[in-house]
Amino acid sequence: MTAESHGHTNYVKIWGILLVLLVISLVGPELEIPVLTLITAFGIAVVKAVMVAAYFMHLNIEKKYIWYVLISGIVALLVLFAGLSSDIMVDDGANWQDCIATSSCVEQRL
Fold this sequence. Notes:
The protein is mostly helical and about 110 residues long. Helix content is about 65%, strand content about 0%. The chain folds into two domains: about 1-60; about 65-110, no CATH class. α1 (about 10-30) runs antiparallel to α2. The mean pLDDT is about 80.
């Protein structure tokens, strides 16, 4: 039985593709175009994560329900973020202080 009969691919080829995607994701922010930076930062990161999971973690040769478990975990993470983001990303309130943007918290401790 060879590696090809199990659906394994050439790891050096996948590594080369991941390396090219890394270079693209590093060059994107250097162009200082915000939309391109977002696409390269998040879009390519998702593609690289799927490639690593599929080829190096061998999810491409596993049963399909493994992908369903993985996708359901990602959906649960997105639902959790959507539910909590309204509280985390709001910067107003009676007891809220932006300690990072101002040095008011440091002055209060001294």
